Amino acid sequence: MDISRREFTKVGCRIIIGATAGTTIVESLITNGIAADNSPDQSGYDWEKHFWGFVVDTRKCIGCGRCANACKLENKVPFDEEVYRTWIERYRVKKTSLETREEEVVIDSPNGGIDGFVDDIPAEELKKSYHVPKLCNHCDNAPCVQVCPVGATYETKDGVVLVDFQYCIGCRYCIQGCPYGARYFNTEKGTADKCTWCYHRITKGLLPACVQACPTGARKFGDMMDKNSEVNKIIDEERINLLKPDLGTKPKVFYIGLDREVK
Amino acid sequence: MMLENLIWGYVYPNESEIQWSILIVLYPYITGLVAGAFIASSLYHVFGKNEIKPVARFALLTALSFLLVAMMPLLVHLGRPERGIEIMFTPHVTSAMSGFGYIFSFYLTIVVLEIWLSFREDIVKKALSSHGWKELLYSSLALFSFDISEKTLHDDEKFAKKLAIIGIPSAAFLHGYVGFIFGGIKANPWWSTPLMPIIFLMSAIVSGIALLILLYIVAMKIRKHAIDHKCLQSLAHYLWIFLILDVTLELLEIISMKYASREDIDIINRLLSDKIGFTFWGVQLTLGILIPFILLLMVSLIKKRDTLKMIMISISCIFVVIGVFAMRWNVVIGGQEISKSLSGTLTYVPVFFSQEGVLPAIIIFILPFIILRVVTSILPPWKDMEEETQKLN
Questions:
Q1: What share of chain A is helix, strand, coil (3-state, %, to 5)?
Q2: Does B1 score more than 60 pLDDT?
Q3: Under 8 Å CB-to-CB from B139, ≥6 apart: which residues?
Q4: CB contact (8 A) between residue A29 and residue B343
Q5: Which member of A89, A107, A185 has the closest CB to residue B79?
Q6: What is the domain partition of chain A in residue ranges?
Q7: Cα B258 to the chain's mean position, in Å?
Q8: Size of interface A-B (CB pairs under 8 A)
Q9: Residues B336-347: pLDDT tens digits?
Q10: Chain B residues touching A146 at Cβ < 8 A
Q11: CA end-to-end span of chain A, whole Å?
Q12: Which residue in A4, A65, A173, B88 has the most C-beta neighbors within 10 A?
């Protein structure tokens, strides 16, 4: 095939212009600056040097709701919507007749427990009653991270599962995928949302708001890379349990005194 | 408050709103119709079932019309639709959802190519015999290549067959994959089953064939043309076979769930007896499978009486397409009506006017019929049906 120099230049120029324009268009469509690759901008904080863990001692929880309230205040979670980053469940096991042996468990969490609980079942009818604070388990093998179609949900190097709000497309697959009901849809942002263990606080050396607000020490937070942290001590010495361990999600919220009814 | 009446037992506080609405019911329904129509057409294109020939090309056009809107319910549903394209540019490969864009595009390419090849002769003839904008339209559809010698047509046919052979597994994959989007969610006991992809696929084929039969009958009635009963009854026969496969798998799933009786069985039982009791046992299984099964069985037993058979087939097909919609509903909505706490249920109340309401769902579902009307006026497939019947008469 004969191509004159003039034609060759023409075709060549077109290819170059086309390729540049093409990549520019594609580049502009792809969201840049992936949060999952960058350590938070806190001065002196290195996310390779921490690995966070959370302990809930259900025996200490009194169901006052201060944690859930503090969480909504700190993280600007709307108070008028049924969405929660953390909440408290109350389990009440009723006395059973010896004939039927059928156990009735009444579970509730009115307004996530923020306003406390009302005693609407007389104490003499109850066998036992306890509270279980719940929050995102920041699973090491998180189903929400697995199912996100664009990778907007990720686990940070220091072990916290976060949502990149600039990236999330709002398909809500992660909400379906979370076995713990820890995720919700943020109607204002049009994206998924969840507990961050107050990532903006912990990277500054502060405690998550719920831990700070708890008057009984039922919530404990710490660095599992630090041998002497309280969280590590409890994990090493106490008998701890996880929520839905059979699902293989490897939660990083460890429970003390978890009863069999709790799911 | 009204909310409290809709909730029974304990549901996690964040679950009080159903996340995937009627639009997400529509999405597997439409995709299923696509896969089913395509597989019906390949009965002729690949397996050489000549009795299907009258509707083979029509089935391809039907598949295309529905395929073009298959993405819409998903897009409308997104919280940030403008970012939807990220699924194509930055897919997160561990997600069952991330492949959808690619599988969809691949399949669309195959369907379009398949249609182009099987209509090329008609397009070229039209291009050569028309003038003005029509000439331009058909010439560009022919890609300005007007060679319809016997040899090239033969090559076309060979290539079309190869494409259809790739098309079958990709149609199966397209829809089996939709099933996996649900089946892969271990958090949800009603979804999490390895049978889900194949159940989705079988019900897809069933719904696609039923829709094709209905569209064929309606088209012939509108065009005032005799119906090719041989073709119709042959399609009905395949419908009957796939119905059996479909119901076997659907029952197998329920039976093994009940027999294994794991910790989620109480909530599953409540779902089946209370929440989706009517739509599951009544619509999905009885109306959508049992009655069509009996009617179609009678069709194959009765001798002659073509008009009666046609009526029985039509009724079966209407029931089947309703039943499969109920099946999608029972999966998508049913799965969300049980709490992942396994201690409570909630109720989905459809809204009519809203971004995720019934109205957009209706609009999206009407679209493929309009597209089909337009596509068939550009590429009329009627010749196949009408020639065949004339030969018979």
A1: 30, 20, 50
A2: no
A3: B127, B146
A4: no
A5: A185
A6: 48-256
A7: 29
A8: 139
A9: 999 999 999 999
A10: 94-95
A11: 73
A12: A173
Tokens 């379009």 belong to B112
How far apart are the C-alpha atoms of A252 and A220, rounded to whole Å? 12
How far is Cα B160 from Cα B146, in angstroms, rounded to an integer? Answer: 18
C-alpha to C-alpha distance for A209 and A20, rounded to whole angstroms: 49
Question: How close B342 gets to chain A, by Cα (Å)?
Answer: 8
Question: What DSSP designation does A219 have?
Answer: E
B313 pLDDT above the threshold of 50? yes
Helix %, strand %, coil % of chain B (to 5):
75, 0, 20
- φ and ψ at B229, to 5 degrees? -65, -30
- B22-45 and B306-337 are packed helices; what angle lies between their axes, rounded to 10 degrees? 140
Q: Could you give the CA distance from residue B155 to residue B321 in angstroms, rounded to a whole number?
A: 37
Return the CATH number of the domain spanning residue range A48-256. Answer: 3.30.70.20
Complex prediction ipTM: 0.92
- pLDDT of the residue at B3: 52
Phi, psi (rounded to 5 degrees) for B223:
-80, 0
Contacts of B180 in chain A (CB under 8 A): none
When the pLDDT of each residue in chain A is averaged and rounded to a whole number, the result is: 91
Question: B346: which residues sit within 8 A by CB, 6+ positions away?
Answer: B6, B7, B8, B11, B15, B16, B18, B336, B337, B339
B280 has pLDDT over 90? yes
| Spatial separation of the C-alpha atoms in residues B89 and A130, rounded to whole Å | 48
Position B393 confidence tier, pLDDT thresholds 50, 70, 90 = very low
Higher pLDDT, residue B8 or A1: B8
Strand (E) or helix (H) holding B249: helix B229-260
Q: Beta strands of chain A (E only): which ranges? A: 52-57, 86-94, 105-108, 126-135, 153-155, 161-163, 184-186, 191-193, 219-223, 240-241, 253-256
Residue-wise pLDDT for B21-35, tens only, equals 999 999 999 999 999
B342: closest CA among A61, A182, A107? A107
What's the pLDDT tens digit per position in A6-58? 776 777 767 777 777 766 666 655 555 567 777 776 678 999 999 999 999 99
Q: Give the tokens for residue A52.
A: 């966070």
The SS3 call for residue B185 is coil
Helix axes B22-45, B100-129, angle to 10 degrees: 50
Q: What's the CATH code, domain B23-270+351-384?
A: 1.20.1630
Residue given tokens 């099933």 in the structure block: B179
B333 touches B274 (CB < 8 A): no
The Cα B160–Cα B114 span in angstroms is 6
- Please, what's the b/e burial string for B138-162 (b: 16 or more CB within 10 A of its CB; e: otherwise)? bbebbeeeeebeeeeeeebeeebbe
Residues B107-165 pLDDT 10s:
999 999 999 999 999 999 999 999 899 999 999 999 988 888 899 999 998 898 888 88
Binary contact (A177, B185; C-beta < 8 A):
yes
Cβ contacts of B16 on chain A, cutoff 8 Å: 82
Chain A residues lying within 8 Å of B355, measured CB to CB: none
Higher pLDDT, A96 or B194: B194
Q: Is the alpha carbon torsion for A224, A226, A231, A233 positive or negative? A: positive
Q: Tell how far CA A192 is from the center of its chain.
A: 11
CA distances from B330 to A229, B18, B290, B360 (A): 48, 14, 17, 20
What is the domain partition of chain B in residue ranges?
Answer: 23-270+351-384
